[in-house]
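Support reply, case 0932

Customer input (verbatim):
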Amino acid sequence: MIAGAERICMPAPTVEQFLDAVKQTVLANKRWIPPAGKGSLYIRPLLVGSGPVLSLVPASEYIFLIYVAPVGNYFKEGLAPINLIVEEGYHRATPGGTGGIKTIGNYASVLKAQKIAKEKGYSDVLYLDSVHKKYLEEVSSCNVFVVKGNVISTPATKGTILPGITRKSIIDVATSKGYQVEERLVSVEELLEADEVFCTGTAVVVSPVGSITYLGKRMEYGNNGVGVVSQELYSSLTSLQMGLVPDNMGWTMQLQ
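Our regenerated output:
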């Protein structure tokens, strides 16, 4: 939030203010936390300009708020393979823009392509870079990972890709389990040779990809099942999130 606010000329709460707001909101709504294994309490921070200004200038006042909602799986398939299509006409972000921060405009730009894809029976859209049109960027609201042997590759964050927290968590968990994780340019051709592909995000955690369609060619992964690496990383991270295993990463917080 601090990085995004700076990019679009907004003041940001301090880390202490942010954490205190999360704690207060969760505790005030603890009755809405779903039973174990039935979902989660989704936490959404929001920073919005609210001052009485119509001009194209930073707002004079801002509201920082956090709301929560009980949710199930982001994709209706749950931890089951999703089917993606590579978008050839629309782009999610461009160099020098705001693709690397969590601003609402990044989501408005994906709605059209996503709507078309879902009408064709796909779960979501995989975007390519807007310059060379051959390097993987993101799915509409998720980071993407490509598995080949013991190597897990994901597009490097260089301003057009959101440096998601779940992305970072999966990189750290995979590294701790002995996988070689590479953050680099990943060409669309690499999908042809991949053993597995999966997405990561706050809501999806890890979502295995069953197929990707590119230029009319459908590439399938894991015999249309959940890949071994995807399952391992999903189980490891969710077990840590739910307190089922010791938190050696220092990521979780106990609320009384």
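We compared this against your earlier run and they match. Two observations from our side: The radius of gyration is 19 Å. Residues 15-28 form the longest helix (14 residues). Please reopen the case if you see a mismatch on your end.
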